[in-house]
Write a structure and sequence with these properties.
This protein is of the alpha+beta class. It contains 5 helices and 15 strands.
């Protein structure tokens, strides 16, 4: 995660995360009302965050009623344990199926899956790829996730996944980390709990794909050493907290 300028806190993994604070890129999106506002971005990820999303999508102001506004702000921080333990196990939305050369992504305005581009390099996505709802990163997009499982999944599908590692990545000079996960309901992969349990060749394939898939666009991508499940869970939790801060800020506007 990119540093917002706040004080860093270190976990057991030795990787520090800044205090939760919205950067200028995220704040500038508040006027557009498009970022993380689509219902798919509010899909439950295992712990239900009660959010009055119509206030955001319909740009309804709450400032005229201070008591009601304060109530809505408090609701944003109510967590109800409704799943197997997010952020370790979570729902995620698949945008790109395993084996695809098409870069699909969710269009936040229409809610449709759009074709962003066809990959310029002669490579295909090694595993299903998508995002974790109710998260946001410093690039103003939800947290990316690569899901290892037996079969390709249709774009627009959501499934349960378990975080097993983090792939730190720099895309054209910007932090663009990827969560590495396994499908929690695939009998061949659900027993994996940490990225070190995967065969080294599989990790090499994943690394090579992300290093190469933008080369023919003359775009530089650097992949750093894979980090353990503990770091991935910490990163997801941070992006969940950042999303909650975004919602609060939205309601204040």
């Amino acid at each position: 995660m990119a540093n917002n300028g706040g004080e860093e806190t270190s976990g057991n993994s030795g990787v520090g995360y800044p205090r939760v604070a919205l950067n200028e890129r995220i704040l500038s999106s508040l006027t557009r009302r498009s970022i993380a506002a689509h219902p798919w971005h509010d899909l439950e990820i295992g712990m239900v965050i009660i959010i009055i999303s119509f206030c955001i999508s319909n740009e309804i102001t709450c400032s005229s009623n201070k008591l009601y506004s304060r109530f809505l702000l408090q609701l944003c921080f109510v967590y109800i344990d409704a799943g197997p333990g997010a952020p370790a196990v979570f729902n995620c939305v698949v945008e790109i199926g395993k084996g695809s050369k098409v870069k699909y992504e969710l269009d936040k305005t229409s809610g449709l899956i759009k074709v962003d581009r066809i990959l310029y390099s002669s490579v295909v996505y090694p595993h299903n790829y998508g995002f974790i709802p109710r998260t946001i990163c410093e690039d103003s997009d939800p947290m990316d996730v690569l899901i290892l499982m037996q079969e390709p999944v249709l774009p627009g599908t959501f499934l349960r996944a378990r975080a097993i590692g983090l792939m730190p990545m720099i895309d054209q000079g910007e932090k663009d980390d990827k969560i590495i996960a396994v499908c929690a309901d695939d009998p061949e992969f659900r027993h994996y709990t940490d990225i070190k349990q995967l065969p080294p060749h599989r990790l090499a394939e994943i690394r090579r794909f992300f290093e190469d898939y933008k080369k023919n666009e003359n775009k530089k991508v650097d992949v750093e050493d894979f980090l353990p499940a503990e770091t991935a869970i910490e990163a997801i939790k941070y992006s969940m907290d950042l999303y909650a801060s975004y919602i609060v800020e939205s309601l204040r506007k």
